[in-house]
Amino acid sequence: MKTYKKLVKFILILSFWCLPISYAYSKNIPSSFADLAENLMPSVVNISSTQTIKSSENQFPFQFPPGSPFEDMFKDFNEPRERKATALGSGFIIDKEGIVVTNNHVIQGAEDILVSVNGSKEYSAKVLGTDPYMDLAVLKIESNTKFKPVSFGDSDKARVGDWVVAIGNPFGFGGTVTAGIISSRNRDIGLTRYDDFIQTDASINQGNSGGPLFDMNGKVVGINTAIIAPGSSGSIGIGFAIPSNSASKVIDQLLKFGETKRGWLGVRIQEVTKEIANVEKLEKAEGALVASVSENSPADKAGIKAGDIILEFDEKRIDTMRTLPKLVAQTAVGKKVTLKIWRNRKLITKKVLLGRLESSKEFKAENKKEEPDTKEYTKIESLKISIRDLNKNDIEERELPKNTTGIVVTNIEKGSPLLFISTNDVIVELQKKKIKNSKQFLNIVEEANNNNEKTLYLAIYNSSNQRSYITVKLK
């Protein structure tokens, strides 16, 4: 009997422990989104933008010969045609004066922008500023009417599994409310330079772009931007939103300056692969490998060199290459930051005074392509490639740094292990040694073969003059 009473008491105690835990996991499930949606609807807008598209395509599947009597008769059919194209999107009001946030791709190239508020009256709007690199735009409704704004929430506090509500203009059906959860965070889908998306399964379709993603407190935690829809099948529950914390910084700059002012380091980077980490004696593949440093850039002035691996920026760890550009861009221009760098298998520290990305030459630079070269060459049988010395004319024509030395790849045979090399690429380093000429390059290759080294570690300039490091496995 005593044993039975003890068992009952234990079960009761266990029940009291379990009930609060179960309640904690279930208490936030909403019974309805109606009150929330009703309160937020007046702050969400439908956007339609129009632009003129010119077409110069031949209206016939053939051309009349010069001088043909039909040429004058049908010339009007082949003149450039114009048509109006309309794009639909969504947005939301962040100021009672009619400041609207949306995606840049919703209004890009638009001649006229109309904004419909709460599904009723339409207003004309003008663009205050855009940021194509994060796909954001800020508009001003041209009216003296006072509007109902919403505010940004803290997207860093948004957790996977939290409820969210999307309101927008899918397929032109304005005022559409959908709900779901945050499916994932920090998604990089290769859409923008600074991808860091919130993934959601709230239904998002064409026309939802630029609309808000709300939390349960009615705060904007994301800006709906993209979906994955195989075969244009529409929403399949995989949508992506720009986090509010990242977006609000850009929006503040667009409102204040009409443009962005991003931090600039002045390095070109690439991924640290397992092979590179092994060569550099890093414990694991992490950080951003500096492929090249822009002349007179903040990085150049701070003494950062090609081959350095940036492991930490402003006390923030660089887990992957893509992390660094995001952190640099979000850092204020003119701020002095500390970088932790892996160089020659040692950890060193550098102080860098950040510049402004938009003021850099690289921001507007266009790459130039070169024609194949036919000068004298040296054949390297073990690598199945042909090379020649880099000369002064090459440096001038390709606008390479004046002190560049190396060799130019003139031919690559079938079966060469240099799979990621192309003709006209310039090899400037091999096994961390600066290349002066073809003879030295050949000697280093032979030395690597004699020492049974398994990997070649090269620094190259490709035909677009982009400097990068690659590893080549030897048989």
Q: Care to describe what's here?
A:
This protein is α+β, with helices and mostly antiparallel strands. It has four domains: 37-56 and 69-141, Thrombin, subunit H (Beta Barrel), CATH 2.40.10; 155-257, Thrombin, subunit H, CATH 2.40.10.10; 263-359, Roll (Pdz3 Domain), CATH 2.30.42.10; 378-473, Roll (Pdz3 Domain). It is 21% helix and 35% strand. It is built from eleven helices and 27 strands. It has helices at residues 2-26, 34-40, 69-73, 104-107, 244-257, 274-279, 298-302, 323-330, 361-364, 392-398, 438-450; strands spanning 44-55, 81-95, 99-102, 112-117, 122-131, 136-141, 163-168, 176-187, 197-200, 212-214, 220-227, 239-243, 263-264, 267-271, 288-293, 309-313, 316-317, 336-343, 346-353, 355-356, 378-380, 385-389, 407-412, 426-430, 433-434, 455-461, 467-473. Strands 21, 22, 23, 24, 25, 26 and 27 form a seven-stranded antiparallel sheet that branches. A six-stranded antiparallel β-barrel has the order 1-2-3-6-5-4. The longest helix is centred in the first third of the chain and has 25 residues, at 2-26. The chain starts with a helix and ends with a strand. The model is unreliable at 7-27, 60-68 and 366-374 (pLDDT under 50).
Task: Provide key terms for this protein.
Thrombin, subunit H; alpha+beta; Pdz3 Domain
Please report the total strand number as a whole number.
27
Number of helices: 11
Number of domains: 4
CATH architecture of the largest domain: Beta Barrel
Low-confidence stretches at least 5 residues in length (pLDDT < 50)?
A: 7-27, 60-68, 366-374
What's the average pLDDT? 83
* Percentage of residues in strands: 25-35%
Q: Just give the CATH class of the largest domain.
A: Mainly Beta
Shape: elongated
Nearest-angstrom radius of gyration? Answer: 29 Å
Major sheet, described briefly? 7 strands, antiparallel
CATH names the topology of the largest domain as Thrombin, subunit H
Distance between the termini: 78 Å
Determine the CATH superfamily of the largest domain: Trypsin-like serine proteases
